[in-house]
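ENTRY TYPE: protein
CONTENTS: sequence, structure tokens:
***
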Amino acid sequence: MKENTMSKSTDTATDTATDTAQDIKAAAHKLAEAIANTAAYKEFEQANEAMEKDPEAKDLLSQFEVAQQMAQMSASWGGDSQNEQNLAALQDKIARHATLTRFFKAQENLVSSLKELDEYMTKGLGFDFAEMTKPAGGCC
């Protein structure tokens, strides 16, 4: 008889844990939907779509990534003013490109909104929520 009671309490604990996990998943789904319905998220999605459809914007970003890598490699060897000038010129072009300006502003606004959400969750949980989601660091 005692074994039967323990089995029932274990089943109840398992059911409660399962219900809690399902409740958390449902709440997370609702949170994701709520975020997706914010103006910041919608603007980011539209700006991202516009950038993906703009070959000039994509080309500028690609050129910038290459120039940035070249400047970093050059800096490790003592620096090269030509690489730095090229990087600065590309930064200027990006700053004047309407599609990219819109994308970066939308990205900044969305990140700001998500940081506010993280602060709210951190206060409610009593620990830094976003920090807990980062991968564990290694030595390198």
